[in-house]
């Protein structure tokens, strides 16, 4: 780790306390359970290792999609995400989307990102190839789906900063957005993951 990374790791609890009350602490919920207009399971990603993952493989599990960065005040959430993944590995898939959109806090290439995550946080959940997660011509197609009501059915909100978290349920419906200052191990996230979904896709 660099000096900056060590420092931000130590300051993480303070950063979380100070930012929870602002926009980085907001939660958006699909209270009416509006179904997507474009199927979530039609999406694919290029993984960090170059392999293609079809989201058809994610049916019947909840999926947490998180835009990540290695040099952010929230970077310690890698550890919390790994903890969450290990706790709910039978029902939850986590996919990290490294992005350099916010103050260029992810300048590394895919190989260095994977090494950083594994060595410092023991990350074993999925990582996508580095891409853009904010609206624009270069936005990752998955994030186009997450931030377009014409695709996901209701949400237009893009990540506020690194470590914004989108939760998709077992039916491929976008249910929640948790802003960066909402801990992956917070009661709001845990409750949403534990919530039962009745009609599962075939």
UniProtKB/TrEMBL annotation:
Keyword terms of this UniProt record: Oxidoreductase, Peroxidase
Q: Per the record's keyword annotation, is Transmembrane included, yes or no?
A: no
Record-level GO BP terms: response to oxidative stress
* Protein transport listed as a keyword: no
What are the recorded GO MF terms, alphabetically?
A: peroxidase activity
Pfam families for this protein: GSHPx
Organism's domain of life?
A: Bacteria
Q: Which Gene3D superfamilies match?
A: Glutaredoxin
The record, for InterPro entries, names: Glutathione_peroxidase (IPR000889), GPX_AS (IPR029759), Thioredoxin-like_sf (IPR036249)
Which family is this protein grouped under? Answer: Belongs to the glutathione peroxidase family.
Q: What is this protein called?
A: Glutathione peroxidase
């Amino acid at each position: 780790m660099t000096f900056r990374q060590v420092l931000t790791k130590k300051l993480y609890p303070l950063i979380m306390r100070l930012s929870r009350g602002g926009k980085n602490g907001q939660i958006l919920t699909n209270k009416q359970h509006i179904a997507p207009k474009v199927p979530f399971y039609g999406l694919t990603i290029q993984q960090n290792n170059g392999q293609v993952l079809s989201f058809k493989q994610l049916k019947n599990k909840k999926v947490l999609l998180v835009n990540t960065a290695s040099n952010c005040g929230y970077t310690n959430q890698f550890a919390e995400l790994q903890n969450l993944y290990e706790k709910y590995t039978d029902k939850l898939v986590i996919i990290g989307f490294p992005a350099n959109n916010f103050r260029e806090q992810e300048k590394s290439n895919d190989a260095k990102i994977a090494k950083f995550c594994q060595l410092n946080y023991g990350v074993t959940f999925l990582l996508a190839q580095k891409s853009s997660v904010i609206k624009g011509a270069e936005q990752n197609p998955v994030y186009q789906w997450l931030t377009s009501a014409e695709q996901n059915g209701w949400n237009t909100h893009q990540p506020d900063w690194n470590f914004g978290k989108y939760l998709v349920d077992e039916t491929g419906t976008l249910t929640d957005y948790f802003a960066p200052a909402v801990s992956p191990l917070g009661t709001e996230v845990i409750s949403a993951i534990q919530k039962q979904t009745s009609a599962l896709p075939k």
